Amino acid sequence: MIKNSITYPDLLEDFTNRSIPVDVPGFYDHPNFIQVEEKNASYLSNYAKFVDYRPREQTYDEYVKDVVPMIAKIFHKKIIEHGSLKVDTSLVGLISKTLEKMNIWNYVVKGSMTLDFPVESQIDKRHFWSLDHDGFKTAHVWLVVPPFYVVDVAFLLHPFSETELKYVAPFVCADANQIIKAEIEDVISEGYCSHLQKINVPRSDYFAVISPQTEKFINVFPARGVLSSTTKIKYIPVSVSAPDVSFEQMTTIRFQGQTAFELYENVIKGLVEKY
Fold this sequence. Notes:
Oligomer: single chain
Number of helices: 11
Largest sheet: 8 strands, antiparallel
Number of domains: 2
Radius of gyration: 19 Å
Order of helices and strands: HHHHHEEEEEEHEEHHHHEEH
Helix content: 40-55%
Structural class: alpha+beta
């Protein structure tokens, strides 16, 4: 597991020593990177931290802030029109690859999500847990696209009541500079917490019993707080992911007959050329 103390120079030196070029987004699919990853399953975290730490110019940040919300809006519309998609890494991976084609650095995050609705809504807190009796599950998936630390276009694929929808935005593009503490109840399901309590596992040992790596990961990739409309959302990363095929080969999901690559070529590319 990547260390919390790792720095940008450390990462750059490591990639250089392994002859992994770092000049363009998506270098996790370089053969030398894959070779290391085959021996070290958590090596993708190094790519994610490189994206976090990579120095950025103001003009780049302005470009991202202009373009990414537009791309998020397009994909949100396409996802809703599709009508039968679910929250998973393959869907968010399409958006990740789209951004890479535009030279925008990003990575895919799998994790938990907690929604704290405003008091006046009288709606109970909603949890999407990553750890349950059955082990890991993909509770939610989003993108980190610095300077946006949360880009979430799959949000409304979860089942929400009409009342709940009144208090959330349809998608999220947020700086999310507020680093917050991830509580055990944000990550481990209520039922599993009750089970651990019944068998007298100390609360402080819950992660150690279920998944020691998860606690270590959260220390390196901390939870972020976002205000969506009037609802506070807590995003808690538990792992990172990346597409394992090229953008052109991602053909399973189609939007009105178009692959995401075709959508980029036919629609998105022309929209962003002015930037």
